[in-house]
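tool_call: predict_structure(chain=1)
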Amino acid sequence: MRLAAVSDLHGLKPRFELLARLLDEGIDTLLVAGDVARGGYPEVQQADVRENFRQLLDGRRDVRVFAIPGNDDWAVVEKTLREFQEVSVPTDRALPLDARLSVAGYPFVPVTPFLMKDFEKWDTPDDPVLPAAAEDLKQALIERGINISGLRSEGMSLRDFEFDPEDRSDNIAADMDRLAAFSDPRETLYLIHCPPAGYRDAGLSPQGSKPIGSRAVLDFIRKHEPRMTIHGHSHEAVDRGGGEFRFQIGGSTVLLVGPGNDPAVLNFLLLDPETGFCERKRMVA
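tool_result:
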């Protein structure tokens, strides 16, 4: 089994063409850590996923893909990925990678400055800390780069949605507890779109570069010590950090794809979860 991990493909044709080259070179198992489709309405993203994955998988019946959506995908992307028999979407249960190891995934990120809210949630019940006074709340949200108003999808339709700062019962931390129950974390590879807080998690916002990692994800790793976690979401932080992409948190190996922003470049990880080997590589169109 030869594994490669990628993230933040964003429907970019050059990256999917590079992925095809990667499969031609012998990769037989592909891990995709979110943000699969190009920008657009749900019907645009559905057509994009169908076209790109049909072309990628045509004639490659021995290839397996484990893929999750990300915060730049509408919910229809997850449904559309499941149309392909070669693609497994491990968001509701852990799926076998081999006789011993499993793969599980999680697409949500803490609330962003942007409008797409299908895969956003509060991080923890008490993070971020926000003022109780309504007159102070708006400025605090701006300073933290948080937009609580946006859109969620219902099939192909979009509806207005707003997070309630007073009700954080639906949060990433609670989901992490459910994720840990899918399988033995020590024998599981996790595709988690959002990186753990404090680990090359800088991202762009209207206010400039801000940390976009999840404290709940960090707590999950510290508590359960999964074998390996693989993250995308933060495009440039790895390269800005001198290429550092691998971290050890307790007994866990934490890997950041660092997809970058150049559509003609595919950054990817070659890995062996049994030995812990991992190498970050680059392929150029």
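agent: DSSP finds seven helices and 18 strands in the chain. Proceeding to next step.
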